[in-house]
Each structure stands twice: as C-alpha cells, then as structure tokens.
Amino acid sequence: MRLAGRITGEALAKAGEAVRPGISTKHLDDIIRRHIESSGARPSFLGYGGFPASACISVNDEVIHGIPAADRILEEGDIVKIDVGACIKGYNGDSANTFPVGRISAEAQSLIDTTRASFYEGLKAAEAEGARLGDVGHAIEACVKAKGYSVVRMFVGHGVGRALHEQPDVPNYGTPGRGFRLCRGLTIAIEPMVNMGSSAVYVTDNKWTVRTEDGSLSAHYEHTVAFTENGIVLLTKI
Fold first, then answer.
1. Parallel, antiparallel, or unpaired: how do β-strands 193-195 and 231-234 relate?
2. How many angstroms from the chain centroid is the CA of residue 93?
3. The pTM is what?
4. Distance between the two ends of the chain, CA-based, in angstroms?
5. In angstroms, rounded to a whole number, what is the distance separating the alpha carbons of residues 27 and 2?
6. What whole-number distance in Å separates Cα of residue 120 and Cα of residue 137?
C-alpha cells in the first residue's frame, strides 16, 4: 500500500506541475500513465468498469469522472480536478487534487482552499480515540458549510486496498458518534467533493462524467489514509 500510494502521489504531482493554459486533458493523462507504468505499476482506473483513460480529469463544474480528451484544452481561469489511481503487487492507491489553470478568481481559490481544509478537518476527527466515520463526515461538512458551500452526497469516499473500491463507504457528511469505527489496519480514501452552489449533481450522457446541476464550480481533494499502530499515515502524500 505504501508503494502504490507513493506512485499514485508522484503521478498526480507530475500532472499538477504540467497544468497550464493551452494543455489538453489528454496530455495530462499521458503524463500520468507514463509515470505509473514506468514505475512498474498499472493505472487502476484504465478499463475499470470500462473507463477509457488512466485518470479522471474534470474541469470547472465537472465534479468527478471527467474523461480526458485531446480536444479538451484548459483555459486561463479554469480549475481542474485530477484523480489518479495506481496498482502494484495487487494493491491500490487513490488520490486527487484540484489545480488552478493560470490566474483564477478569488472565489475559485476559496473553494479549492476550503475543500483541502475540509479534508484535514476530517482527518483531525479521525485521529481522535474511538473515532467513527460519522465523526469524519460531520467534520468535513461543518467546515464546508461554514463557507457557504455544499458537499456532494451522491458520491462518497471508500475503502481501498486489494480492490480500488472496498467497504466501508466514507461519506463527507454524517452524525458524530455513528458509523463504522475506525481501527488499526484500515485503509480508506477520504475525498471531499465540494460544490460552490447546490449539492445536487447529475451524470452526463457519456455515462461517466458528473456535473453540478446548477453549473457551479466544484473542487475535489483526496488521499489514501492508513490507520496504523503508530497513528494515521497519508499513503499518497508526496
């Protein structure tokens, strides 16, 4: 899991460094695939349920599962979400981040910053003795709502290990003291998906890409998190 996480984090970082106006999402996907395969791993997303690319790359009001394309060119002021998975020796890592394309609005930057901050609020809640998934989700949503934003409820985080998606589900909302108890040996993907407007989303005609119903911007931040005898470890953080 540490190796899978490191390769995943490196691929995401390389793609993030390449984000700029004028680049295609397909080019970013190529960067990710080359790094994963040159590291002796395979892209977890490629062919998963029929997904046609190595990474999910979603722009502006696209929440998740954007399909990279040569004719999808990033423009100044966009925000782009890149979600990466790598599998090696039968284990998976999963990580995502939202990147600015050139200069972005203060409102877009606030959304990105809040989404990242909500992840770390959830992580803080997870570190408490006897913590449950409801504590994590509640902390994430409280952070998001304090800024006037909303968390996506239709899609959630998940367990990750031998399979890319495992139990338990990891919602970005919840009731404190309720839900699965976090325990040593658990590995999960905590991934706030935050909309500037309504939480409502829909799946587009390509059967993959998810967009906000009201056309508002959305941001995404994710790490694979391991609960060990020495505390919490972010396996995909570089």
1. unpaired
2. 11
3. 0.97
4. 14
5. 27
6. 11
User: How is residue 201 written in tokens?
Assistant: 């989303």
pLDDT tens string for the chain (238 positions)?
999 999 999 999 999 999 999 999 999 999 999 999 999 999 999 999 999 999 999 999 999 999 999 999 999 999 999 999 999 999 999 999 999 999 999 999 999 999 999 999 999 999 999 999 999 999 999 999 999 999 999 999 999 999 999 999 999 999 999 999 999 999 999 999 999 999 999 999 999 999 999 999 999 999 999 999 999 999 999 9
- Amino acid at the residue 73: I
- Helix or strand run (H / E) with residue 228: strand 223-228
Exposed / middle / buried, residue 212 (Cβ in 10 Å: 0-12, 13-18, 19+): buried
